[in-house]
């Protein structure tokens, strides 16, 4: 009987461990930069997220929709309940008119992709 109880306890503990997963909750999903001058230099915004899961969250990569947009990530794990950031920088040089850029964020959450946006309008002086 003790052996059966020990086996059941170990199976239950292993099953509970398999359920531990990170979860990303975005605190900002998009920014509107408004009107920005083409010759005004780069503009950066910080997107904050929270690990609302029960295991460490790691941002694996961030992909941008254009070479005019860059995303900086930290590969340092974000513990459950803690916050992390992704910094997105937009270069308006040689861009004209309205823009709407999508940034895809990939983490260690299985099968998940998170999208944030950056929009505005580039003006020529």
Automatic annotation (TrEMBL):
Residues 1-20 form the signal peptide. It comes from Alistipes indistinctus YIT 12060. Keywords: Signal. This is DUF1573 domain-containing protein. It comes from the Bacteria. InterPro entries: DUF1573, Ig-like_fold. The keyword Signal applies.
């Amino acid at each position: 009987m003790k052996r059966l109880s020990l086996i059941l306890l170990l199976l239950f503990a292993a099953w509970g461990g398999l359920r531990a997963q990170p979860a990303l909750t975005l605190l900002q999903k998009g920014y509107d930069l408004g009107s920005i001058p083409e010759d005004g230099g780069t503009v950066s915004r910080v997107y904050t997220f929270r690990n609302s899961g029960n295991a460490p969250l790691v941002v694996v990569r961030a992909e941008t929709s254009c070479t005019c947009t860059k995303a900086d990530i930290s590969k340092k794990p974000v513990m459950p309940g803690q916050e992390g950031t992704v910094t997105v920088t937009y270069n308006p040089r040689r861009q004209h008119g309205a823009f709407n850029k999508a940034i895809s964020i990939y983490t260690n959450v299985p099968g998940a992709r998170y999208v944030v946006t950056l929009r505005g309008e580039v003006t020529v002086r």
